[in-house]
Amino acid sequence: MKKNATMIMASTMLLGVLAGCSSAPQSTSTGGTTPSPAAPAATPAKAGKTTIQYWHSMGGANGEFTDAMIKRFNDSHPNIEVVGTFQGSYDEVVTKLQQAAAAGSAPDVSMLERSFVQLFADADVLEDLTPYLKKSNLSTDGFVQGLMGHSTFNKKLVTLPLNRSTPIMHVNKTMLDEMGLKIPTTWEELKTVSNALVIKDGSGYKRQGLSMPFDDWYIQAMITQSKSRFFNEAGTTMEFIDAGVGNKVFSYLKDLQSTGALFYPPTQDSGNIVKQMFTEGKIGILFESTGTIGGFLKNVKFDYKTAFLPKNEVFANPTGGANVTMFASSKNKDTAWEFLNWLMTDPQGGQQFVIDTGYLPFTKKMVESKEIKELYAKEPNRQVAYDQLQYGIDTNKNLAWTPIIQEFRSAMQAIMYDNKDINATLTTFKTAAEKLLKGVK
């Protein structure tokens, strides 16, 4: 175990990087949360109780929902005290987990952003949850399969879903209706509608058609919609570039950008910028996380609808957010599992957390529950997000994911902001990425 923890600590892949999946993405769109200004002090455990430590990334309102969830567990389990501690954003939690694993002080249970799971799984510091599921008469078949892509590594079930999201299309239907336009379902329809919504204002634009935060999440979606993947099956090359899909995706976006149909925001605070523009009616269509649905429902003054991301050749979308895991170093594994099992199965656990926060239901039983059905009947926009999971695809499993995505975001900036040649930029990125891929073999 000490050797494995040292291996994690020695890895430089994760330090100082965005996790790439937040609805606050770690950038702005993939399921994370905006951290609170400072982490609250952990509540001390009460005497005579078995204590387990739970690290998480839920700040702000979602942090309050997390505290309430932990309190519900503690109140219903008199012999257990879960101590929940906010540890910052997804990437900050990962850095702290690296340090804690190396020092032998990892928490019993932790939230772990899904694209980082493989690093810890390969280091063999996560507990295999398979025997615990069997003991509790549970099966992976009971989980929503579109959210299980980052749960099993090396034939071990090491994480289970909790706060999960996907990108989705948000639509100002009032705006479309005024122009006799239908909600687009394909790239071609999206191009037509986005261009039709443009209103020029001198040398600028009073209104544009489409926007999305600066985040690779949406590019990943477009790659899979074109029947391609980021990495090839062997994880040795960039499949989407070799297949010509990278050129196709960026050419499509640059064409929309050239006519004003696409507003591509600055990298800094891009999620908040485009959400504000959508709310104010300055754009008609927005690609953003499912995690923004609740905010739009409260704030927009128009007929607001959600829809699947438009397809190119097929419908497809990546997932985002975080799972929960148990560390193999825990001295209270049965107790830690009691907490995890409660999160997965008790209506007052993960299900109430999903209802409170807007994340996706992650078990089939949860989806069929009276509470979720009533929620979807009241807020059908949220059901669209769940229904889209049938097209969920995860293609970013690789130990070199984090440094490669840094390189990819640099390529995105060069193409979308600096108008650099698409093929030349992608070729440069491919060379750098494949060097990194060789480095993890």
From TrEMBL:
Question: How far does the signal peptide extend, from start to end residue?
Answer: 1-19
Q: Which Gene3D superfamilies is this protein grouped with? A: Periplasmic binding protein-like II
Q: What Pfam families does the record tag this protein with?
A: SBP_bac_8
Q: Which UniProt keywords apply?
A: Signal, Transport
Its subcellular locations are: Cell envelope
Outline the segment boundaries, as ranges, of region: Disordered. 24-45
Where does it mainly reside? other
Q: Which InterPro entries match?
A: Bact_solute-bd_prot1, SBP
UniProt family annotation: Belongs to the bacterial solute-binding protein 1 family.
Q: What is this protein called?
A: ABC transporter substrate-binding protein
Q: Highest lineage ranks of the organism? A: Bacteria, Bacillati, Bacillota, Bacilli, Bacillales
